[in-house]
Every structure is written in structure tokens, then in C-alpha cells.
Write a structure and sequence with these properties.
heterodimer, A: mainly alpha, MetI-like fold, globular, B: mainly alpha, two-stranded antiparallel ribbon, 13 helices
Chain lengths: ~280, ~300
Amino acid sequence: MKQQSSRLFGGLSHVVLVLWTIMVVTPIVYTFLNSFKSNTEIFGDSPLSLPQSWNWGSWGRAWETSRIGEYMINTIIVVAFSTFFTMLLGSMAAYVLSRYVFRGNRIIYTLFVAGLSIPPFLALSALYKVVDNVGLLGTHTGVVIVYVAFSLPFTVFFLSAFFRTLPTTVAEAAMMDGCSHTRTFFQIMLPMAKPGLVSITIFNVIGQWNQYLLPIVLLPGDRQDKWLITQGIANISTSAGYEADWAGLFAALSMAIIPILIVYVVFQRQIQTGLTAGAVK
Amino acid sequence: MRRGRPAPGAVRKWGFIASFLAVPLAVYIIFFVSPNLQALQLALTNSRGISPDFEYVGLDNFTRLLDDDAFWAAVRHHGLILLVMPLVTIVIALFFSFLLNLGGGQKNGQLRGVWGSAFYKVVFFFPQVLAVVIVGVLFQAILNPQKTGILNSVLGLFGVDPVGWLINPDLALWTLMGVMVWQGVGFYVVLFSAGMAGVPKEVFEAAALDGANRFTLFFKITLPLVWNTVQVGWVYLGIAAFDAFALVQVLSVDRGGPDNSTTVLPLEIFRQTFTYYKFGYASAMGVALVFLVLTFAALTLRVTRRERIEY
């Protein structure tokens, strides 16, 4: 009797889990398939069927009109710099704040962490003014610096907690041997903090890659050559070139999804750890 | 030892601290702290665009907010999202993570997840990695109101008439919440799974040996033990309920429509800033949003505080 109810429960759980799997996978598979179809096929009687022929023409058109490749290169450049500097500056600040006693430490730490509870929307107009005043509106440099500033609260918060968990003895021994503060940080503490650094780097790369609000504030419509990938994607559904070209739209969308899918499949364990890192603490 | 002349080691230490803090602090203050403080100031002015000429108007912007229908619609929508979306996400995610970690019954006296649980976790988490913008454009096609829209054509197989997922004002916000749940569940499955993995297996096994059925195992054992993680999830989802900007901007009809039926405060702030250039008024709305978020966070921390279970 118990065996039977157990088997029934097991079966039902699989039904539910498979159903959710289908819900997650279908939209993505549907996007890939539709990129090869003609409009009549897409809006035909069986939208879920396979395309009649694998027509790559839409991919070429999408590459031209959506400028996805160009935006992706822009985004790679911006995110590479912004994540690098977020990690460098964030770990420097977190290290000093977590391992040194000095006057003002608590105030500075609180100032950083307080940023966690402020939604980015409060500062929209003021941020626009500030970036405009320093002449960085519409530039990738401006985006990089603002990304760093907006990523510091979480990075400093997380890495401070991480540095506090590391043993002090190794660093003290190095200092005894005449190693400078700076060298101790770069050659001893950073390697020891690697697991934490990896998690938070992944967190920042994905967060900054997917960022949408800050680019549309800082890289306005007249600087389309500077746009980032999220702006390009948001634009493909409204831009004129796609009015009659649904396959092109789906191809452009596929081009944005595939790199992420590949990176995710390869690094899924690290990505899951990285993204949930802040919450598990 | 003479006063006023610190030891060379101390000088080096101070120099090191200053040199490590100077740049991060400068970047943070100039591009994060100062815009936020300026926003508090702007909220009291009639500032328009980047023009340096503006006057202080006291609390006028805030009194105007009280008469702004779009503002109140947005606040109502945040209330509804806050009531529905976190709860639905957490219930589904808790159920899934229970199945995936403990639902497989016992083998050799050990509780396991159902077969294939590693695979399910990988698939469920994927939407979380996609930019909200991608999800938005993806669902535009899926939720197409025609009978050939993918969801409508699936429902059509069961004889359901085409549904105007995003064009029906009574339904649109619910549809958007559905998309948020779709994207978010996987993250919380992984989060709660980590919470369950942190509980020693013996606790579950002892309960199972004592004849606890799955129902008891879930509600009496698992839920109290992962309550802390659920609370963290609740705060995350609550904060997400006050955002929703990218999804509404990309997926909804007319950015917040139809007829303001899906608008949210971040979208109104963005509109006031970059469509009407009412920087002062937009900043006042920003202050209102921060006030709501902080109130939510404070209330949550008060209400959900519980004795931590030691194990």
C-alpha cells in the first residue's frame, strides 16, 4: 500500500516537473524554429511544427538589420572593463574595510552597504545630469564608470564578508617577513579569496551584461552606434525592418540567446552558485 | 618617544588604507551617492531637463503626486504584484525543490530527490540567466493575441477561444506576473535547494523512519528548517515587485498599457524624466518609490522574524 502511494507520488511529481520543463524550453525552441520559417508558416495552422526547409536567409538579414553583432561587441568591451574595475576597486575597498581598524571605517562601510537598499530609479534624472556634466553621456567610458559605481555596494558587501572569513595568520606572517601591505593584498589575500571572487565576478558579468535601464539612460537613441545588446534586442521588436520579417526577428533573438545558452551549459554550476551567492549568505 | 610623529609602520598603514579607498570611494560618491542626494534636492524643485535654471517649489511635486492617476495606478499595481507574485513563485519553487531534493523516497535508508533532479535544476534556472529584455521580446510572440499566437494555438487545441493576454486591460498585469514567475522560479528552486542541503540529512531521515509521510515531512520538518532562506527569497521578490521596469517597458502594450493597466513607478519615473523632461517631478516620484521599498523591507523584517532553529 505504502509502496503504491509512493510510486503514484513519484509519477505525479514527474508529470509536474516535465510540464514545467516544457514551459521553460518551448518558448526558446519555438524561437529557434521560427527563425527558419516563412511568415505563412509562422502564422499558419500549426505554429509548433518544424520548418519546411532550413532557411538561413533570415539569419543573414537579422545580422544586417538588427546589428546584433555590433552591439554584442560593444557589450563585451563595456562589460569586460566594468567587471574588471568593479572587482579591482570592490576588492580593494572590501579588504581595507574588513581587515583594518581605523577611524571612519564603519561610516564608509555603511555608506557602501546602504546603496543596496536604494532602487536605481531615484537617481535617474540626477545621474543623467552628472554624467552629462562630466561630458561622458553617450560614451562607453561613462557606462563603465556608472556600472562600477552601481555594482560596488553588493561587491563590497559580499567581499567584506568573505575577507572576514579568511584566516589572518598567513597575511601576518608575510608582513613579518617584510611584505608590504599592497603586496600582501595582491599576492596573498586575493589568491586566498578566489572562490568568493569567482562567484561575485560571475554575478557582476551577468548583471552588467543584462543591464537595460542604465544603457538606455546613458546611451540615448542618437548614439545608436554605441548601443549595448539589450538596447538592440528591445529595439528589434519595434524597428521598422521587422514589420513583415518575423523570421528575422526570431533569428536576431536566437543570436542573442545562443551565446548565453552555451556559456550557461558550460558553467552552469558556477553560474548558479554565483547568482545565488548573495542570498545564501 | 616623541609625540606627533607616528612610527613609520603606522604612516605606511595609513597611506595604504587611503590609497586603497580613494578611487572606489570617489567613483561611488560621484556616480552613486551624489546623484541620489541630488535627487532628494531635485524633488523639491521644478527642474526641467538639464537646464540649470529652476526654482524651489517646496512640496508641490508631492502634492501633485496625490492627484496623479498614473502614479496611483502604479502604486496599486505594485501592491497587487507584491501580494501575488512572490507568494506564487515561492510556493512553486518550494514544491519543486522539495521534490528535487527529498521527493524521491528512500533508498538504503537515505532520502533522495526524484530521478533526474540535476537536469531539472539546470533547465529551470536557465530563464534567470536571460536578460529581462530577451524574455520580454520572446513573450511578445508567445502571447500574441491572434489565434496563431503560440499560447493561444495550444489552448485552441482544447477549444479555448483566443485570449488577449496583453491587450485585455483586466488581464495584462496578471500576464506580466505570470512571465515574472516563469523567469524567477528556477532561481528560488536553486536557492531553496541550497537551504535544504544545509540541513543535515539525518533530520529528514529520522522523521521518515518515524513514519512521517511526505506531507508531514514538508510542512512540519522541511519548511521550518528552510524558513530563513524563504524569508531571504521573500525580500528579494518583494524588491523585484517594486521594479518590473524592463518587462513592462518591453512586453506591455504602449509601455504600461493598455490604458495604464500595467504601469509601474519605475516606468512613470522614466517617462517623466526622458519623455517630459520633468526632472523635479520624476525625482519626487523616485522618493516615493524609495519610501515604499524601505517600508516594505522594514515591515518584512519585523513580521517574519522568527526564532532561528538550531541544528
